[in-house]
Every structure is written in structure tokens, then in C-alpha cells.
Amino acid sequence: MLAIIAAVLFFVAFLINAADITTNEIFTSTNVMLLGLTLLALHLAGIGGGWTTRRRRR
């Protein structure tokens, strides 16, 4: 799930950079890209990977 959100943030950062959209200081393409990299790192670390089911052994 975090990897999908990271991909969306990378796409938004690309659009901001490619279209040369002027934004405020917080919502720049670099900051959006860094948020995407943070989410991708969390995904690779195993956080937010999904639900695990625990089975009972008989």
C-alpha cells in the first residue's frame, strides 16, 4: 500500500516539475519526491505491507 502511495507522489512530483507549476515553499516537487522516497523506504522495511492472518494449529 505504501508503495502505491509513493508511486502516486512520484507522479505528482513529476507533473509539478514537468509543467513548471509554481507552488508554495512547502509543496515543491522536491518535497513531494522526498515524501515518496520516505514511503518507499518504509515499504521496503516491511511497514504497511498488509494484514497477516494467523492460523491456529491443531
Keywords:
transmembrane helix; membrane; 58 residues; mainly alpha; rod-shaped; transmembrane; 2 helices
N-to-C terminal Cα separation, in Å?
Answer: 33 Å
Number of alpha- plus pi-helical segments: 2
State the domain count: 1
* Major sheet summary line: none
Strand content: under 5%
**Could you name the ranges where pLDDT drops below 50 across 5 or more consecutive residues?**
none
Radius of gyration over all CA atoms, rounded: 16 Å
Secondary structure: helix percent? 55-70%
* Average pLDDT for all residues: 82
**H/E element sequence:** HH
Secondary structure class reads mainly alpha
Shape: rod-shaped
* Number of distinct beta strands: 0
Keywords: Membrane, Transmembrane, Transmembrane helix
Q: What is the strand and helix layout of this fold?
A:
Blueprint: H1 2-18, H2 29-44
Helix pairs in contact: 1-2
Explain what this protein looks like in three dimensions.
The longest helix has 17 residues, at 2-18. Helix 1 (2-18) packs antiparallel against helix 2 (29-44). It is built from 2 helices and no strands. It is 57% helix and 0% strand. With 58 residues, the protein is an all-alpha fold.
Concise synopsis of the structure shown:
With 58 residues, the chain is an all-alpha fold.
